[in-house]
Structure formats: structure tokens, C-alpha cells
Amino acid sequence: MIDNIFVIGHKNPDTDSVCAAIAYAKLKQSMGEKNVVSARAGSLNLQTEFVLSYFGVSAPVFLPDITPSVGHAMEKEVISCSKNTSIKELLAMMEKHNIRLIPLADETGLYSGMISLFDIAHNLFREVNPINSREIFTSIKFIHASLGGKLLNAYQPDDVFQGNFLVGAMKELSFGKVLFGLDHQKCIVITGDREEIQEIAIENGVKALIVTGGLPVSKEIQRMAVEHNVNLIVSPYDTATTVGLVKLSIPAYRVAQNYDGTLNENESLEDARLKILKAFNRGMAVLDEEHKLCGMITMADFMQFSKPRLILVDHNEISQSVDGADQCEILEIIDHHRLANRETLHPILFINQPVGSTCTLIAKLYFEKNIEMDKKIAGLLISGIIADTLNLKSPTATALDKEILEKLNETAKLDLKKYSEKLLASGVNIKGRNPEEIILSDFKEYKTGKITFGVGQVELVGFSEFEEIKHRFMEELIKIRRNRKYNFAALMVTDISTSNSLLIFDGDVNLCRRLGYPLLEPHVAELKGVLSRKKQLAPHLLSIFKET
């Protein structure tokens, strides 16, 4: 999904933004860009649901948050090892796959630690003294797997033990003295074809005797090994190499560490990057809710990761964009609202014209590029224009909106008068609906200086129904302002039959005093002749709040 380009409108999408996203994604697909997908950042309102149902069009992909997560960048095909994988096998895996970190997990995927090249080196070459230089933690099975060769006698080969290894490269007397100071039953003796040393080792009941160089072992020594329950191995390597391979027989879980912690695949990629920068190994395991391994991520993955790509329609302000848009690559913007400061890494296509609807601009692109559209797309674009201009009655409507609307209907072949009445009536029902849902269904956030405010809009036929439940809307508006920490919040209630609006509001006292609209009662203002939030209300509020 991260490989797609998402065409997406603002939060709390209205009909214009949804229809524009669908139509523009279709336009891009018709031009050969198959990975372009329409999306929406919020739930559909009743009017938009009516439009999509009327034309039989599926809703855009629901994408409430596009913040890049660990799951987007992590390596999912993870090379892992079990607790009984030997260090020798680990090194072979690292070389084969050109990696320096391997997570430890059981057969069910349950994670228990991480092993790095440093961890292996530290274990093999840590500071030693004459005593701990001979310490070993392994099993006969692990040793045989590391060495290969022949296992001439096996006694409890699966038992993991902590003991010592001793090289029999000295006279019998000296060897006996050294052996005397060790726990014989946990001692591994490594020697060549020195039968006297072999006999002393077996008679003392050592854990294992390893004969190096692939040299033959006498029948008597083999018999003694069986009699004394001594494991007997013939190594094909010389003594020095055999010692090294015995050290590499240590099981993985003895080396695994957990000091860098783990990540969750839903964690913010930016948060993960900061954690990994501080991590010793510059990499972490990614676990699911059951603590099972589902991925790995290293600094190399961040270098290779491509940010999600967006095309914004019907808005250009980051505060109105889908959550996480500030961490995405913006490819294009097609809008008809005021400009807000926005930085991009590269030049982008930016279309911004003072028309009544974004759908007007999308339709214009279809005509300019001579891209054929079907009746459904034409119907969606018509719907966006009608909804955003109140069927060309809004002061935002332009001659271009009217011209494009008529040209689109040559394809859609709608009875525009009847259809516009149905469309505008589809979203005016507020009886029995949640006031919070209604307020947020078409809600936009604005910033000017240190002031942040939000304004919702709902369109009705007459105010009588709203007057009965006005207090419920006021209560929800107060909650929204406090929860979002706005300086000011308002709901613009527009009567499309009279082209007048009411404004219920809550906010800082100094801001409320500046409104300049006649008050019908405390926190309720009359907005005669005001239909457009974009062209009439928002510019007024931005202007008076900017002075604060």
C-alpha cells in the first residue's frame, strides 16, 4: 500500500473533496499511472453517501493516518536463528546473507534476543586469564556439529554443560597436574595421537576426548571410552583449528543480548529512527502483540525507505491534511482555497484558482488533456460543483463553474434542477443525529499567528429544527474547543432556502468580542447573506484574529 500515490482531500471530507479525489485518481490512471488511488481522511457525510450511491461508485480508501510506521520500512523476510544454533552456524549465516544482526526466535516465532557480530567477537575474544580462558558452555552434540568428523562414542550428547577444555600438549605428569585442578566430568580434552594423554583423560572420566588431525584411535582407547562413559570424537582438523571450532560450538542463546529493546510495527517511523540512532547495534527486532518476531529494521532500511506520496485536493494547509502528511512527499496540490505556507523538497504541480469547487478544476484538466470520462465521473464532478457552490448560488461560484457544469452535463445527461434539489436536501437532516458528528462532518481548522480556531458548517432548509436542539450543539462545540485546545470554535448553520446563516461560537472573550456580527443571543450571531465559509466567514475571522 505504501507504494501507491494517494489522491486525498482534507479531514472531515465534504462532497467536493471526495468527488475530486475519485475523479482525479481516475484521470491519472487514464494517463497511465496505475498506482494512483483515491483516499479519504475521514468519514463520509450524508450528502456524499447519497452521491456515491446515486452513481454506483465505491468510496475512496479510508486513510485516517498516513504517518510512516515501522511496518512500512521494516524487512519482513527476516533471517533468524534458534537458541541451539551454534556460533559457527551464525557466522556462516551472516556471511551468506551479508548481515551483521540476527534475532533469536523459537519455532513459533517467539523472540528472545539479538545477536550481533560484536556480541560474537566479545564472547570469543573477551579479556581472559589462565582460568577463564578454558571455559566453555556447550554440548557434545554442538561440538560434533561444529567439528564434523566421527563420534566414536556418545554418552548423553544432548546435555548442555559449562566446563573447561584442556589441550593435551604436555608431558603426562604436567597434564595430570592440570587435569587434577578441573572438574573431570565437565572437562573436554583435546589432543593428537598421544595415547598416554588419552588414557589419563579417560581414566579420570572426562566429559569428552577429542583426537585431532583425523588420526586413528586404538581399539583399546575406544573400549576404555565406552567403559568410562567418555564421549570420543575424532576431529578432521589440527589441534589449533579444533580448539577454535570448539569455541564456536557455543549455542546462540548464550551470546544473545537484549540491551537495545524492540519495536512495534505500528510505531512511528520517526520515533523508531531516533531509538535506533541511540541503539548500540543500529538495528532492532520488530515484534507483534504476542511478542513474536515479524520484522527487522536497521539504519540501512531508513536509507532505502521512500516516503508515502500524496496528491492533495481541495486543501493545501497542513492542519487540514490527513495525519502524517507532514512526513510524506507531496507531489501535487489542486485547490481553490487561500494559500498557506508549505515547503516542498522539489517543485510540484500546484493548481490554485478562485473558483467555487475543486471539481471544476479537475473537470477542466479532463477537457484540456482531452481525456474521455464516463457518466459516473461526470456525475461526481457535477455533484462536487453543486455541493460546494449551493447550485451556483454561493458567492464563491464563478462563470467557469457554470460553464464547466453545463459541459459536464453533456456527458452525465442529468436533470440538473431535480438532481441539485435532491443533492442539497440529502445532507440537511439533523434530527436524531449526533451533534458532534454533524459539527465535525464538515469542519476545518485554521491558524493565524498564535491563534488556532476551527469552523464547521451544516446546511439546512430553515432554522426551526435547529432552534429546538441548538443547546446540544453548543455543548458539543464547547467540548470540541476544549479537547482540541482551540482559541475559538464555531458552527456555521446555513439556510440554503434564504441564503442566510447563524453562527454559534465559543472561545476566548477577546476574540468573541471582535466578531462584528449582530448577536441574537449570547454566543449566537446572525450572518445575513453569508453562505460561504471559504469566501465570506473564514477571511473575516482570519483578518480580525490576526490583529490579536
Provide an overview of this structure.
The two termini are 44 Å apart. This protein is α/β, with parallel strands linked by helices. The strands form 5 sheets. A 6-stranded parallel beta sheet has the order 3-2-1-15-16-17. A 6-stranded mixed beta sheet has the order 6-8-9-10-11-7, with helices on both faces. Strands 18-19-20-21-23-22 form a 6-stranded mixed beta sheet. Among the domains are: 5-67 and 308-425, inorganic pyrophosphatase (n-terminal core); 435-546, Roll (Diaminopimelate Epimerase, Chain A, domain 1), CATH 3.10.310.20. The model has no long low-confidence stretch (mean pLDDT 91). It is built from 21 helices and 23 strands.
Secondary structure elements and their pairing?
Elements (H helix, E strand, L loop, with lengths): L4 E4 L6 H16 L5 E5 L5 H10 L5 E2 L7 H4 L13 H11 L3 E5 L5 E6 H9 L9 E5 H8 L2 E4 L6 E8 L4 H9 L6 E5 L3 H9 L4 E4 L7 H9 L3 E4 L4 H9 L14 E3 L4 H10 L4 E5 L5 E6 H6 L4 E5 L15 E7 L13 E4 L5 H11 L6 H15 L9 H14 L3 H10 L9 H7 L1 E6 L2 E10 L3 H5 L1 H15 L3 E8 L4 E8 L1 H5 L5 E3 L2 E4 L5 H14 L2
Parallel strand pairs: 1-2, 1-15, 2-3, 8-9, 9-10, 10-11, 12-13, 15-16, 16-17, 19-20
Antiparallel strand pairs: 4-5, 6-8, 7-11, 13-14, 18-19, 20-21, 21-23, 22-23
Helix pairs in contact: 1-13, 1-14, 2-14, 7-8, 13-14, 14-15
